[in-house]
Amino acid sequence: MAHEATHEHKSASKRIWTVFGILSVVTIAEVILGIFRPEWLTETTLLYMSLLNWIFILLTIYKAYYITWAFMHMEHETKGLRRSVVWTVIFLIAYLVFILLTEGDYIYEVYKNGHIAWDF
Amino acid sequence: MDATVARTGTEGKTWGGGSRSPLKASYGKMMMWYFITSDALTFSAFLAAYGFSRFKFLDEWPIADEVFNHFPFLHGVDAPMYYVALMTFILIFSSVTMVLAVDAGHQLKKGKVTTYLFLTIIGGLIFVGSQAWEWKNFISGEYGAVETANGHILHFVDGEGERVGLEKIATPIEGARTEHAGNNGLWFVDEPSTMPSYSLEEVKKGFKANEDILVRTHVLNEDNSKTRKILSREESLEIINNNAVGVVEGANLTHNEYGPPLFADFFFFITGFHGFHVFTGVLINIIIFINVVLGTYEKRKSYEMVEKVGLYWHFVDLVWVFVFTFFYLV
To answer: Which residues contact B140 (CB under 8 A, 6 or more apart)?
Structure first.
């Protein structure tokens, strides 16, 4: 493994700076969108969430992909290690987020439309 | 021996057992990956719980741009996001120097590893310091607010809808509250810092006198613009006189001038837990840095230890990317 790694990493610095460029551009784009919040993006809703929030989340996952694959060298690990880490995390997080957000939204509806007044 | 073991036909192949390691990673590196997996699940549980509470109080959840709008040396300037964007860059850049250190380690260049690891430590320290500054602003608050009986927050605005601070409204009442003085009791006890600068009576009195001040509630306007409802002068007077129970300045675990106390709780807990990770990351980096300088890995002819702590450091950066999105952007 060690000699293999030395082999592969001979000119890794170019890749590192490219990834840094990508991460910077994405972050700047996020900040600009976060400051201006274009109306047509905040007012268009897709699957219970504004388009702007979907853009933020997708850009975040895009950044997470580059950090894990390039900076943490996931691209050089074996398929087995990669899948045991990435698939586990993605499955459990998606499951948890789905359940908690559904429940949170349900309680919101109860507070809003329930017959008991709670805003006193 | 062989007689007791069933033959599987995979002997000598990848999954045939024995001394072959199918994942082709050293024990330390593999276990660092699985630690990161479990830590990622911890963080995502916190963030999912944050999402739960946010969905529950969807309308009154504070808008991040209004909460985090400070920048060093720019007092009174509304600078949403700039500071946290800067913090994000500092952390991403320290990730870059870390991966450069790992890269230099693969080529067994001790000098370069030393330099890059040192820069990484500096970046981490700057980040933790920035987080402390962010906490300080959040704890001390900006405008102050009034809390109602069931924990809703009322803000004060002028005719144009611009926020007005309590100090511009409250009229001091003589003797309304006595400050603790050293000669009336315990000389070593200071005035509690959690006490607001004005009493509710002072705010009520000042509010009555300032004709053009209105109350902004936690209720969202119905036009989908994410702006909050501003009451008329009569409604404002009524809600201040009948519903207000206390004055809130800044945020702590039970009161939060920006919105639901849960927002402050999650902010302190999640960014605090992340800051704790950065802090331990810096400590581990320092230990490894000392080893690099002493030449431990030079003698080993392997800088894999730098790679392992590098994994942890990148993970801290990875978590911040998500915290940044869910606390400040979404």
So the answer is: B249, B250
Distance CA B199, CA B248 (A): 10
Under an 8 A CB cutoff, do B51 and A72 touch?
Answer: no
- Which of B249, B277, B293 is at the close of a domain? B249
The tens digit of pLDDT for each residue in B28-68 reads 999 999 999 999 999 999 999 999 999 998 888 988 878 88
The 8 Å CB, 24+ separation contacts for B319-323 are: B319/B40, B319/B43, B319/B274, B319/B277, B320/B88, B320/B91, B320/B274, B321/A60, B321/A63, B321/A64, B321/A67, B321/B88, B322/A60, B322/A64, B322/B43, B322/B44, B322/B47, B323/B47, B323/B270, B323/B271, B323/B274
Write down which residue in B195, B226, B249 finishes a domain: B249
Kindly provide the ipTM of the predicted complex, given to two decimals: 0.89
**Domain of B245?**
145-249
Quick check: A57 and B41 CB within 8 A?
no
Interface test with B, best of A31, A58, A87, A116 (most B CBs within 10 A): A31
Judged by CB atoms closer than 8 Å, whether chains meet at B314 and A72 is answered as: yes
Residues of chain B positioned with their CB less than 8 A from the CB of A111:
56
Same domain, B157 and B238: yes
| B250/chain A closest Cα distance in angstroms | 23
| Residue extents of the structural domains in chain A | 1-76, 79-120
Give the residue among B187, B67, B72 at the shortest CA–CA distance from B129: B72
pTM of the model: 0.87
Residues A89, B40: C-beta atoms closer than 8 Å: yes
Residues B53, B120 within the same domain = yes
Contact indicator for A54, B315 with CB cutoff of 8 Å:
no
Size of interface A-B (CB pairs under 8 A): 151
